[in-house]
Design goal:
By secondary structure, the chain is an alpha/beta fold. The protein is 42% helix and 12% strand. Strand 4 (117-120), helix 6 (133-147) and strand 5 form a beta-alpha-beta unit. Helix 5 packs parallel to helix 6.
Length: 177
């Protein structure tokens, strides 16, 4: 399966920056991930960020205790696919921009949804020490390669820094009070 379209760098940067801004909507204190799915014509079809399902309380205890948080969190990629379905957006053939490499559970969903290309931001070195992280990502990329879905990391050179994203999030929080 080959990708029928390729965005140039300027569009890749714009869409990844948009995914970064969406990541600021997450209430997760340790990892904020954003995702957008774009059509070949460069229209945003869906978006998602990591967080609890609708109606599940975002309590301090749940957000700060990994044993309580992880079983409840829906990943950004899954939310983007689910939101597309809820809104009737056709994402088959789309390109997915996500602010972290997809886990193997999200990779399965991405493949089943018919996504044709994936762009992501590599996690920083501190995340690479999480037990099993490398092995889980290796499975994701093995599956993408087996079905022929191109995937590549976008350089952080032209993207928002963590400090800039924190400032955006803080400004958003101040505007909602």
């Amino acid at each position: 399966m080959s990708n029928p379209f390729t965005f140039d760098d300027k569009w890749n940067i714009r869409f990844m920056q948009q995914a970064q801004i969406i990541s600021t909507w997450s209430k997760d204190p340790s990892t904020r991930v954003g995702c957008i799915i774009v059509s070949p014509e460069r229209f945003v079809l869906s978006e998602g960020y990591n967080g609890f399902p609708h109606g599940i309380a975002d309590t301090y205890e749940r957000l700060h205790d990994r044993d309580l948080k992880y079983p409840r969190v829906v990943h950004a990629e899954a939310n983007a696919v689910i939101n597309a379905g809820r809104n009737g957006a056709k994402i088959d053939g789309g390109i997915l921009f996500v602010t972290a490499p997809p886990c193997y559970d999200c990779a399965k969903m991405i493949i089943q949804a018919g996504i044709h290309e994936i762009l992501y931001i590599n996690l920083d070195n501190s995340k690479k020490n999480v037990p099993g992280w490398r092995e889980k990502l290796a499975i994701s990329f093995d599956m993408f390669n087996e079905v022929g879905i191109p995937n590549k990391a976008i350089s952080k050179k032209y993207l928002f820094t963590k400090a800039q994203l924190d400032a955006i999030r803080n400004k958003q929080m101040m505007n909602t009070k």
